[in-house]
């Protein structure tokens, strides 16, 4: 039955102008707004959540099965479509290669469609289902098939919702049975609540569960009543998922009790309603929720049975709440234990011999030998003094240590600035210098060549060092933002470019995207190593590890978004300890483009970040277009690579999580000797947590033969087993214990927005550290920050209008727009920032007044 839809309902009547059958609610925003895209976006419609009238009787009849072939887009990064056999039954869409596979239950995947946002494109006969964790792109061969599926999918969604709603009404009903006449229902009601609770937790809706329990407690304690609409709203918001009970009888368990719930649900519509003191309740179906509500909101309980029921439910709720809390605590502890096991060398040694060898001995020895090499090479590069940016181990005289440094020799501009900053920095004592942070001794002992000279390389990768003089925490912890209805914001702005939507500041972290992008240099030591690795294939492995390391933040940073930089905003990051100078500028506002450039003795790094987002209903995909570039001066290499797709799953809920997927290819434009291909593996719906965030990569020679193989996880580390000895190439730094209270920031991220007295006089006023709303947020003044943010955005709009009036166009100050060899438009650093900073200084030049 190729491309035919079979349905257990013999005739399906459908309307080709589906307005009568379906309720598309919004057009979908598909991109950041090129005209082609917006045209495409107009063809997309987000199907409204199937809704039933509150209080009305629910149609619980099971819609007919629908099955047949559809085209399904292949899983990212694979391109194209393939034919798959689909079966839609009781609101669950399953698929496999053939009908036979489906009937033999050899499934490729399944999706609860009531959990999914459904968007359709009638023109291209496409149906997209986004269930947050799982995304299906489907296409029908003909309009007829398209409309049949659409009808069926809508019917099944409604069915699932009604089913959930009926259970919910059962709960309300059970709770309402506080009248003496139904006092005998106590046990039943309790087990109903128990089982609903169990079901909710089983289906993973921990977020709904505490709400129900909380509301229960509040109600029982006589404070706030549960409102029916509140619960219903939450259920529909969460797309509540409940398996239809199996109608087996006699077995003790949830299926049996559920039948009881159903029976109760049934009772709601029968004439046996409790009505002792409420004559107007009669048997009116419409007014039942009101009745329940009135009971719930009136905790004046009189009968002893009802009191007992209250107490029982109260105790039970508290117990369930308590045990959930302790489960959560145990899981948190377990996670912490695992984290420590991974990071602590002692525990690592206790794990398998192989791991210990891999992680500890080899990696550290290998890294040390590399770094020794790096350092000796740089020392021997014709300089009498240390040409590396090093930090003095003598903590009593940090400024003296700075004096002993000489300018790096690679870039003239860098060197000029370096000298200038030396003088100024030594004159001003920064608050940072007062810090008594230590941690240097650890490092000195592991560095085998430098300590006698009083120097060491500060960027040993596996040993998170406390650089003296930098803050280790933020001025204020982050405010909880879980109450902010992102759903409302997004849905009110459907069809709009999301980057244009102004969001409340409570959703922000106190960093701008320019600062965020500089985090990609957190592990710049990998490039230092690459620039001192003679073997081109090994070199490529380090470059690859560097490209991966720039994604490591994603496990911690899913609750807040960075500030959208204002046009003309800049950000510099001079890291003496890491030896690089980073500068970035917001060069375009719509579409947003952030250009950045970093330079050190061992590498030059630049990229312009243009990204568009695709909002699928539950998840947002961020697709970056600019290439990342790195040159290594010692070998004359110029590497360039694309970025993986970053997906924010469940963007609307607190179960948000980030994933990177796609193929990344690193090419050396100066030589085709070797190429690197990596796959950021997309997690599969049914795969375990432990296989998430995986990366596999190979380094190929000219003939396409594999020379090195590496792999691992972007949140855990990368190993290469084809080197002389299996080597751990990179491992992320340990997160500070209090990271949850501080936006999930790493040590490195906490330092980015730090303003020191010496910096304050050197930075241009356009630097992100001066952005007032961001500063206020950092200090925890959310309301003030919100107000200020509006002002900053308004000022930007005014500036744009003024310029348009004058017929002027904004010209970025430190980057210029050129075409690269492949004809792509790129933004390159014009080399002026550090020069101006040194002479005449930004205080003596004209700067944009951004805020
Ligand atoms: C609703 C809000 C609060 C949820 C949080 C959204 C966060 C996770 C989003 C908002 C903006 C996003 C960033 C936008 C642009 C880029 C550049 C790209 O090259 C890598 C991903 C990166 C860096 C994104 C990472 C994820 C991100 C930080």
From TrEMBL:
<dbReference type="GO" id="GO:0005886">
    <property type="term" value="C:plasma membrane"/>
</dbReference>
<dbReference type="GO" id="GO:0097038">
    <property type="term" value="C:perinuclear endoplasmic reticulum"/>
</dbReference>
<dbReference type="InterPro" id="IPR037239">
    <property type="entry name" value="OSBP_sf"/>
</dbReference>
<dbReference type="Pfam" id="PF15409">
    <property type="entry name" value="PH_8"/>
</dbReference>
<dbReference type="GO" id="GO:0015485">
    <property type="term" value="F:cholesterol binding"/>
</dbReference>
<keyword id="KW-0446">Lipid-binding</keyword>
<keyword id="KW-0597">Phosphoprotein</keyword>
<dbReference type="GO" id="GO:0005829">
    <property type="term" value="C:cytosol"/>
</dbReference>
<dbReference type="InterPro" id="IPR018494">
    <property type="entry name" value="Oxysterol-bd_CS"/>
</dbReference>
<dbReference type="Pfam" id="PF01237">
    <property type="entry name" value="Oxysterol_BP"/>
</dbReference>
<dbReference type="InterPro" id="IPR001849">
    <property type="entry name" value="PH_domain"/>
</dbReference>
<keyword id="KW-0445">Lipid transport</keyword>
<dbReference type="InterPro" id="IPR041680">
    <property type="entry name" value="PH_8"/>
</dbReference>
<keyword id="KW-0963">Cytoplasm</keyword>
<dbReference type="GO" id="GO:0006699">
    <property type="term" value="P:bile acid biosynthetic process"/>
</dbReference>
<keyword id="KW-1003">Cell membrane</keyword>
<feature type="region of interest" description="Disordered">
    <location>
        <begin position="430"/>
        <end position="450"/>
    </location>
</feature>
<comment type="similarity">
    <text>Belongs to the OSBP family.</text>
</comment>
<dbReference type="GO" id="GO:0031965">
    <property type="term" value="C:nuclear membrane"/>
</dbReference>
<keyword id="KW-0472">Membrane</keyword>
<keyword id="KW-0813">Transport</keyword>
<feature type="region of interest" description="Disordered">
    <location>
        <begin position="784"/>
        <end position="805"/>
    </location>
</feature>
<keyword id="KW-0256">Endoplasmic reticulum</keyword>
<dbReference type="InterPro" id="IPR000648">
    <property type="entry name" value="Oxysterol-bd"/>
</dbReference>
<feature type="region of interest" description="Disordered">
    <location>
        <begin position="1"/>
        <end position="56"/>
    </location>
</feature>
<dbReference type="GO" id="GO:0005789">
    <property type="term" value="C:endoplasmic reticulum membrane"/>
</dbReference>
<feature type="compositionally biased region" description="Polar residues">
    <location>
        <begin position="1"/>
        <end position="35"/>
    </location>
</feature>
<feature type="domain" description="PH">
    <location>
        <begin position="63"/>
        <end position="158"/>
    </location>
</feature>
<dbReference type="InterPro" id="IPR011993">
    <property type="entry name" value="PH-like_dom_sf"/>
</dbReference>
<protein>
    <recommendedName>
        <fullName>Oxysterol-binding protein</fullName>
    </recommendedName>
</protein>
<dbReference type="GO" id="GO:0120015">
    <property type="term" value="F:sterol transfer activity"/>
</dbReference>
């Amino acid at each position: 039955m190729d491309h035919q839809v079979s349905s257990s309902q013999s005739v399906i009547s459908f309307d080709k102008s589906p307005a009568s059958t379906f309720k598309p609610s919004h057009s979908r925003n598909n991109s950041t707004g090129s005209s082609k895209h917006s045209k495409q976006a107009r063809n997309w419609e987000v199907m409204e959540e199937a809704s039933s009238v509150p209080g009305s009787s629910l149609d619980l009849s099971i819609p007919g099965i629908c099955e047949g072939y559809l085209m399904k887009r292949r899983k990212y990064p694979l391109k194209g479509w393939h034919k798959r056999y689909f079966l839609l039954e009781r609101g669950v869409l399953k698929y496999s290669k053939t009908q036979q596979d489906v009937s033999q239950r050899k499934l490729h995947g399944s999706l609860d469609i009531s959990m999914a946002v459904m968007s359709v494109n009638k023109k291209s006969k496409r149906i997209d289902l986004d269930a947050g964790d799982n995304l299906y792109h489907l296409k029908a061969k003909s309009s007829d098939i398209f409309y049949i599926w659409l009808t069926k999918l809508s019917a099944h969604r409604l069915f699932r919702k009604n089913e959930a709603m009926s259970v919910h009404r059962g709960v309300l009903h059970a709770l309402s049975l506080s009248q003496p006449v139904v006092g005998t229902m106590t046990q039943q009601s309790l087990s109903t609540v128990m089982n609903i609770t169990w079901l909710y937790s089983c289906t993973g809706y921990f977020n709904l569960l505490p709400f129900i329990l909380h509301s229960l407690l509040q109600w029982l304690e006589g404070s706030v009543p549960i409102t029916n609409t509140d619960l219903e709203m939450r259920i529909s918001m969460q797309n509540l998922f409940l398996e239809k009970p199996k109608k087996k009888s006699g077995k003790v368990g949830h299926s049996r009790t559920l039948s009881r719930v159903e029976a109760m649900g049934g009772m709601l519509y029968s004439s046996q309603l409790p009505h002792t003191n409420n004559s107007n309740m009669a048997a009116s179906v419409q007014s039942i929720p009101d009745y329940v509500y009135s009971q719930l909101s009136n905790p004046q309980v009189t009968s002893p049975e009802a009191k007992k029921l209250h107490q029982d439910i109260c105790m039970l709720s508290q117990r369930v709440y308590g045990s959930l809390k302790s489960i959560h605590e145990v899981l948190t502890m377990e996670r912490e234990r695992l984290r420590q096991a991974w990071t602590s060398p002692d525990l690592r040694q206790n794990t398998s011999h192989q791991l210990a060898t891999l992680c500890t001995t080899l990696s550290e020895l290998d890294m040390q030998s590399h770094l020794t090499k790096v350092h000796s090479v740089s020392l021997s590069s014709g300089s009498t003094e240390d040409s590396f940016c090093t930090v003095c181990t003598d903590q009593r005289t940090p400024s003296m240590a700075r004096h002993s440094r000489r300018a790096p020799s690679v870039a003239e501009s860098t060197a000029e600035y370096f000298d200038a900053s030396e003088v100024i920095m030594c004159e001003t004592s920064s608050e940072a210098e007062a810090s008594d942070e230590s941690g240097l001794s650890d490092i000195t002992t592991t560095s085998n060549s430098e300590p006698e000279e009083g120097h060491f390389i500060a960027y040993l990768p596996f040993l998170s060092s406390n650089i003296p003089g930098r803050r280790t925490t933020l001025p204020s912890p982050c405010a909880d933002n879980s109450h902010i209805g992102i759903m409302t914001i997004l849905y009110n702005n459907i069809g709009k470019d999301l980057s244009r939507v102004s969001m409340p500041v409570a959703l922000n972290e106190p960093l701008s995207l320019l600062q965020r992008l500089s985090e990609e240099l957190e592990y710049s030591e990998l490039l230092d190593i690459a620039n001192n690795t003679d073997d081109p294939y090994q070199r490529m492995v380090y470059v690859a590890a560097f490209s991966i390391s720039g994604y490591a933040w994603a496990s911690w940073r899913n609750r807040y978004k960075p500030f959208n930089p204002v046009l003309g905003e800049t950000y510099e990051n001079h890291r003496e300890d890491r030896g690089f100078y980073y500068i970035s500028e917001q060069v375009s506002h719509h579409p947003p483009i952030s250009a950045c450039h970093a330079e050190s003795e061992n590498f030059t790094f630049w990229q312009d970040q243009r990204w568009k987002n695709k909002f699928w209903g539950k998840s947002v995909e961020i697709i970056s277009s600019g290439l990342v570039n790195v040159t290594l001066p010692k070998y004359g290499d110029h590497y360039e690579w694309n970025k993986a797709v970053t997906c924010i799953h469940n963007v609307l809920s607190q179960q948000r999580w980030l994933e990177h997927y796609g193929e990344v290819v690193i090419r050396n434009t100066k030589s085709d000797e070797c190429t690197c291909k990596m796959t950021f593996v997309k997690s599969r719906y049914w795969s375990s947590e432990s296989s998430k965030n995986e990366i596999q990569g190979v380094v190929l020679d000219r003939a396409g033969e594999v020379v090195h193989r590496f792999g691992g996880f972007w949140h855990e580390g990368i190993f290469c087993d084809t080197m002389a000895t299996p080597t751990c190439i990179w491992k992320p730094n340990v997160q500070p214990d209090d990271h949850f209270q501080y936006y999930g920031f790493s040590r490195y991220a906490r330092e980015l927005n730090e303003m020191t007295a010496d910096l304050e006089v050197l930075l241009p006023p356009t630097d992100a550290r001066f952005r007032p709303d961001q500063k206020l947020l950092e200090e925890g003044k959310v309301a003030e920050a919100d107000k200020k943010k509006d002002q900053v955005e308004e000022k930007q709009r005014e500036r744009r209008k003024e310029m348009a009036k004058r017929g002027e166009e904004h010209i970025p100050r430190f980057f210029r727009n050129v075409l690269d060899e492949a004809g792509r438009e790129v933004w390159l650093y014009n080399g002026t920032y550090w020069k101006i900073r040194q002479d005449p200084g930004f205080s003596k030049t004209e700067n944009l007044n951004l805020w």
